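User: I'm putting together notes for a lab meeting next week and I want to include a structural view of one of the chains we've been expressing. I don't have a solved structure, so I'd like a prediction I can at least talk through. The sequence is below, exactly as it appears in our construct file.
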Amino acid sequence: MTVAVTGAAGHVGGNLVRELLARGRSVRAVVHRDTRALEGLDVELVPADVRDAESLQRAFKGADVVFHTAAQVSLSSDRWPLLEAVNVVGTRNVVTACLECDVGRLVHFSSIHALQQEPLQLPVDEERPLVDPGSSTSYDLSKAESEREVRHGIERGLDAVLLNPTAIIGPWDFGPSHFGRALLAMGEGRLPALVAGGFNWVDVRDVIAAALQAEDRAPTGAKYLLPGHWVSLADVASRVAEITGVTAPRFVCPTSIARLGVPLASVWAWATGTEPLFTAVSLQAIAGSNRSICQDRAVRDLGYAPRPFQETLEDTLAWFARTGRLARPVATRPLEVQ
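Assistant: Thanks for the context. Below is the predicted structure for the 338-residue chain, given as structure tokens.
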């Protein structure tokens, strides 16, 4: 049985490929440009672009299952054309290619950001509506529209299931991801201050375990929220300090004040050729996200059991140190995915 993985060299895709190989599966890694996460792995590398429908049809030919992890993540408010092209039209192309290639099942990776966060006093569950235009950020809307594309595919006869993880963290973060960069800044003492608020963080390996259960057990059209643990940025920094020995930032800036510094941070990022850690979009997520995400359906149907956040943080920092991305020694222990 051949398994195709879009975005195979990304954070989620790279972890998924490793777990599939560990289970003896035949993996077709569908990649765009960067293949660092796949070096040395026994996979079939297939170049493709989700924006190119014909390349996907070639990539999916003969595949029994497709895991669609490829996506454009952006914390900027002015990236809609790219987000639409990759996340919306790209998912439409994936759905069409699955149908035309008679793929047995599509496992689509969406995001908690696709769902409306309010009312904040009520837990978010699978029945929470998707965000709409005009009331969400460009990234959130693109993930909601990608879900709608999958639903259209199901109406056309596609066997698909959907997953909505919260903010993903974990090892094999080659990018590194946005939050991975924040952890490195904390671990190297390069973060002068923190912002009040936090988010629900989930281990990438727990998301992968749920995805593989969903492939095997979930009914067509099923959707599962995959939360981990809500942890404040101040608590994250404190734990990073304990693990690395670096002093945590002492100043926690209120979100209202942090917003005033966003333009300056953007100018600095442009001047240094980097991406800002804090933007208007990320501040909105940190300050305005729902702290209560329901995992009952995933627990019942998939046996979902997210590990402690401390374990995730230790493993992530240890991987950064082991691969030379974190210039400080960190106590290591064997990781689950090899």
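A couple of points you could mention at the meeting. The two ends are 21 Å apart (CA to CA). The mean pLDDT is 91.

User: Perfect, that's what I needed.
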